[in-house]
Design goal:
Helix content is about 30%, strand content about 25%. It has five helices and 15 strands. The protein binds 2-amino-4-trifluoromethylsulfanyl-butyric acid and cobalt (II) ion. The site of cobalt (II) ion (CO) has 5 residues, from loops.
Length: about 260
Amino acid sequence: MAISIKTEHEIELMRQSGQLLAKVHRELAKELKEGMTTKDIDRIGEELIRSYGGIPNFLNYNGYPASICVSVNDEVVHGIPSEKRFLQNGDIVSLDAGLIYKGYHSDAARTHGIGEISDTAKNLIDVTRQSFFEGIKNAKPGNHLVDIARGIQTCAEKAGFSVVRDLCGHGIGKSLHEDPEIPNFVTRRRGTRLQKGMTLAIEPMINEGSYDVWWLEDDWTVVTIDGKLAAHYENTIVITENGCEILTLLPEEQKELAQIGWL
Ligand code: MF3
Ligand code: CO
């Protein structure tokens, strides 16, 4: 499939979709507390998505049984919400959410700590987030996908962490997953040349230890092979004239990031 270039009108709809998803994440983060189940998170997340007029796009996607992917500690991505999994003090939890609004998909992930978390966990969450911003510094017309990957990988490895190889980001728009596939690590191939109007989900998955992962019996949950922690951070972006715009962060969140020099 060819990579779709969105019109100004489509980008406006993607922006609306992304801003609703940003609100879902902001509200969902406030609900997190020790003792709740991962299924509670899914329930609240789905309600938030629907309350804003969105449709959960993960629900039933290739048979995925929930609206929010909830991945705890050594779970990298695609954890399945469960009534039996209770959040505990010291856990880190990655929330991956997406929605469809007026026909356009958005996709974003955040990792949060529950209660008092270790310094390593804190650092892993921060570095994963920072690696996204280091990556998108290179997201501009004329550059290639590998330039984004280099920013991400350099940041993660400088901190002593590793970049998951088995999963990638992706194009996004009228479908959740569109071409191109977007590795978070440097490949020999430089990848697609970036062009204004491309909409991309950039999603570094960063491990505390080895980058190797495996899949649980449910065929969804991806976990680190060594049982160490993993973090995930994702936003939907659009390539603009001179750089990119992040569609799934609220203006006030972007202002804060600009203040610390990440944007
Ligand atoms: N952000 C995740 C991804 O791009 C969304 C997974 S959707 C699921 O892979 F439905 F498959 F969980
Ligand atoms: Co994604």
